[in-house]
Design brief:
The protein is mostly helical and about 150 residues long. It is built from five helices and no strands. α1 crosses α2 and α4 packs antiparallel against α5. The radius of gyration is 28 Å and the shape is extended.
């Protein structure tokens, strides 16, 4: 088993050599032990449990999902602006185009504005969540000359 792990580590160190240079024999043995520990068993987590853990990690420790719709809304609003400019230029040049494109630009623009306001709500919820966690604004490492 150790020889097989060393063979896996040998292939791994060959791939990592351009990044980290030569890998010593001692570090190869340490990597072989890690490989053996890594392949020691099978997980007891089902796919549903792993997805739930991943979503808890993403949502619980980051405000990114709450503000992501604002970035997408801004992107859509920019695309809508470019589309409206293109439609105005086509109309001024007398080039024929379907009239439903005006409605499409309007609907995409309204959806973009909706996403921007959802992002505002997300930022507000994030601030409330941070306050509800009741964590201090800063942590004092050491108190000096403080009368109790």
């Amino acid at each position: 088993l150790m020889a097989e792990n060393m063979r896996i580590v040998g292939r791994l160190s060959d791939r990592l050599q351009p990044l980290f240079g030569d890998v010593s024999k001692k570090s190869k043995q340490q990597m072989a032990i890690l490989v053996r520990l890594y392949f020691a068993g099978k997980t007891k987590y089902t796919l549903k449990k792993m997805l739930r853990l991943a979503s808890d990690g993403i949502v619980g420790f980051s405000d990114r999902p709450l503000t992501l719709c604002g970035e997408f809304g801004g992107f859509l609003l920019g695309i809508t602006g470019l589309g409206l400019i293109a439609l105005i230029v086509l109309a001024c040049c007398g080039i024929a185009f379907p009239s439903w494109l005006w409605a499409l630009c309007g609907l995409v623009g309204l959806n973009a504005i909706t996403l921007l306001f959802m992002s505002l709500q997300g930022m507000y919820l994030n601030r409330m969540y941070d306050e509800l966690k009741d964590r201090p604004l800063y942590i004092v490492a050491e108190e000096l000359n403080m009368d109790k």
